[in-house]
Design goal:
The complex is a heterodimer of chains A (92) and B (398). Chain A has 3 helices and 5 strands; from the N terminus they run ββββαααβ. Chain A is α+β, with helices and mostly antiparallel strands. Chain A has a 3-stranded antiparallel beta sheet with strand order 2-3-4, with helices on one face. A two-stranded antiparallel sheet of chain A has the order 1-5. In chain A, 27% of the residues are buried. In chain B, helix 1 packs parallel to helix 2 and helix 4 packs across helix 5. The longest helix of chain B has 18 residues. The chains are: A alpha+beta (92), B alpha/beta (398). The interface between A and B is medium-sized, with 22 and 27 residues.
Chain lengths: 92, 398
C-alpha cells in the first residue's frame, strides 16, 4: 500500500485503546480479547495519533521531543503498517 | 494474544514470574441455557455461594494493581448478575479493557445502554445453544428473532458485532447456514470454535467429536464463504486439537499470564483447572490476588519445567507448548503431569486417535444384524444432571 501523505490525521482505530502500563513498562494497544505490547518508538508514535494532529505535526513533535532529525520516513512507514493492521484509522 | 511486535523482553523469563495480564471473572454459574458442550465444571451445582459485589470489586482493584489489563466477564450468563453494571464501572475506572462474553439472553436496550455508559469495551455474542438456534434460524422462530434483536442493539451501540459459534458433530455440517446466519446478523467477526473437551463437553465427547471428513467439508465451505464475502467479515476457524499432532500451548503455560476467578471466589490458573486432582486452589475470600498469584502452591505447581515427565522433559519443543494442556492430560491419562496425549510423541497418543476413529465410524456405522441403532445420549448441563466429573478414557468400552 502507498504511504500516507503528510496531511492525514491518524487516530487510534474505533474500539481499540492505547494506554501506558507500568507493570509492562510499555504502551499497550488493547482490542477485543487481545493486546499488543508496543516497543518504545511504536508507543511514542501511537500516543501522538489523536486524530487532531497531522502526520507532519507528529513527525515534528517527535523530532522536537527526542532531539532528532530525519524521522519522517520511519514514522510514515510505521503509520502505514499500523493502518494496514487496523490499529490506526485516518481522520481527514 | 499477541506478544511484543517489535522486540521487547518476553513477559516471563525462567528467572521471574510475570503479572496476570488476563483476568477472567466467571461471575455466576447460573445460565438460562443448558449446552451439552459447556466447559463449566460438571459438579457446578455443588459449588458455594457467589461472591458478593464488594468482593468482585476488590478482586478487580488487586489484580489491576499487579498489572492485569484485559478483563473477561463470563459465566454462566454474566447478565444474570444484577451488579454487572457496577462491576463494569469499577473495572473501567481502573483502566481495564472489558470484554463481555454473553449469550445475549437478558441484554435489553436498558442494560446495554447502562453497560455502555459504565465503560464496557466489547461484547462477544455466543451462540451457546447452536443446535436449537440453528433450527430456529432455519424455521424463523422466536429465539432467532431475539438473537437478531440483540445483534442489532450491539451494532446500534457502536460495538463491533463479534459472533462465536461452537461447532460439533451435530451442527458442523450446517456451517454454511451458520455463516449465512452470521451475515444476516451483520457480524463483522465470526469465530467458528470447535468444541474443546472439558466439563460437559467431555461427558458428551463421543456424541460431539466430528469426523475428519466433516471437518474438511466445513473448512472448505468456510473458505468458499470467505472468498464470496471478500473481507466484509473476518472468520476464524478453530480446529479441534484432537486432529493435531502437537498440543496447544495451553494458557501460555499455567500461571504465566491468565487468572480466572470462579463464581464462589476460587482462583484458577485456567478455567478448567478445578478438576485437577491435588491442586488446592486458593480462594479470594481468604487471600489477596498478589499472594494467590505469586505465592500459592497451586499457581506455582505448573510453572517452569521441573514438573514435566518424559517425553516433555527432554523435548526441544517443551518451551514452545509447555507440554500442552494439563486438564486434557488428566482427563485422558489420569495424571496431570503427563504429556498432553494430543502430542504424537506421547506414549498415550492412541487415546486421542482412537476417539477420532470412533468418530469416523459413528458417521456411517449401521447395525450389522438389523438390531436397533446405537443409542446416543447427550447430557444437558443443568442442576439435575450436575455430577462429579468422570476421568479416564471413559468411552473406550463403547
Amino acid at each position: 500500500m502507498s504511504d500516507p501523505p503528510d496531511t492525514v490525521k491518524p487516530a487510534i482505530a474505533h474500539g481499540l485503546r492505547l494506554q501506558w502500563e507500568p507493570a509492562q513498562e510499555a504502551h499497550v494497544l488493547l482490542y477485543p480479547e487481545g493486546m499488543v505490547k508496543l516497543n518504545g518508538s511504536a508507543g511514542a508514535i501511537m500516543s501522538r495519533c489523536d486524530g487532531v494532529r497531522t502526520l507532519a505535526a507528529i513527525v515534528a513533535d517527535l523530532e522536537d521531543s527526542y532531539g532528532l532529525t530525519g524521522l519522517a520516513a520511519d514514522v510514515r512507514a510505521f503509520v502505514a503498517l499500523a493502518l494496514q493492521k487496523r490499529w490506526l484509522e485516518l481522520r481527514e | 494474544m499477541s506478544s511484543a511486535t517489535q522486540g521487547g523482553p518476553p513477559l516471563k523469563t525462567s528467572a521471574g514470574v510475570g503479572p496476570p495480564l488476563w483476568l477472567l471473572l466467571e461471575l455466576t454459574y447460573r445460565c438460562p441455557l443448558h449446552c451439552v458442550f459447556c466447559y463449566n465444571p460438571t459438579d457446578f451445582a455443588r459449588t458455594g455461594p457467589e461472591l458478593p459485589t464488594g468482593d468482585w470489586l476488590r478482586v478487580l482493584r488487586e489484580a489491576r494493581a499487579l498489572g492485569a489489563v484485559q478483563l473477561g466477564l463470563s459465566g454462566g450468563e454474566p447478565l444474570v448478575r444484577e451488579d454487572l453494571e457496577a462491576i463494569v464501572a469499577e473495572a473501567h475506572g481502573l483502566g481495564f479493557y472489558i470484554n463481555l462474553i454473553t449469550s445475549g439472553v437478558g441484554l435489553t436496550r436498558a442494560r446495554i445502554a447502562a453497560l455502555k455508559a459504565a465503560g464496557l469495551d466489547h461484547i462477544q455474542l455466543s451462540f451457546q445453544d447452536s443446535t436449537r438456534e440453528m433450527n430456529d434460524f432455519l424455521s424463523s422462530t422466536r429465539t432467532f428473532g431475539l438473537k437478531a434483536q440483540v445483534a442489532a442493539l450491539i451494532r446500534e451501540y457502536g460495538y463491533p458485532m463479534v459472533l462465536n459459534v461452537v461447532l460439533h458433530r451435530l451442527n458442523i455440517d450446517h456451517v454454511g447456514e451458520i455463516l449465512d446466519m452470521a451475515e444476516a446478523l451483520g457480524a463483522q467477526y465470526v469465530e467458528l470454535a470447535n468444541t474443546q473437551y472439558y466439563g460437559w463437553a467431555w461427558l458428551n465427547r463421543e456424541q460431539l467429536l466430528p469426523s475428519r471428513a466433516q471437518l474438511e467439508r466445513a473448512e472448505a465451505v468456510t473458505q468458499r464463504f470467505r472468498e464470496r464475502i471478500a473481507g466484509r467479515m473476518q472468520i476464524y476457524f478453530v480446529v479441534p486439537d484432537y486432529f493435531e499432532t502437537r498440543p496447544k500451548a495451553c494458557m501460555n503455560g499455567l500461571g504465566s499470564v491468565f487468572l480466572a476467578i470462579a463464581p464462589d471466589g476460587t482462583a484458577m490458573p485456567c478455567h478448567a483447572a478445578r478438576m485437577l486432582p491435588g491442586l488446592e486452589l486458593p480462594s479470594v475470600r481468604d487471600a489477596d490476588i498478589r499472594t494467590i498469584w505469586y505465592d500459592s502452591a497451586a499457581f506455582n505447581r505448573f510453572r517452569g519445567e521441573s514438573w514435566m515427565k518424559e517425553p516433555c522433559r527432554s523435548c526441544p519443543e517443551r518451551s514452545k507448548d509447555f507440554g500442552g494442556c494439563r486438564c486434557q492430560a488428566y482427563l485422558l491419562t489420569g495424571d496431570p503431569d503427563n504429556t498432553d496425549p494430543v502430542c504424537e510423541l506421547s506414549p498415550r497418543h492412541a487415546l486421542v486417535t482412537a476417539a477420532v476413529e470412533r468418530a469416523e465410524r459413528a458417521g456411517h456405522e449401521r447395525p450389522a444384524t438389523g438390531g436397533a441403532p446405537r443409542e446416543q445420549v447427550l447430557i444437558f448441563r443443568d442442576h439435575r444432571t450436575s455430577i462429579p466429573v468422570v476421568t479416564g478414557d471413559r468411552a473406550s468400552h463403547r
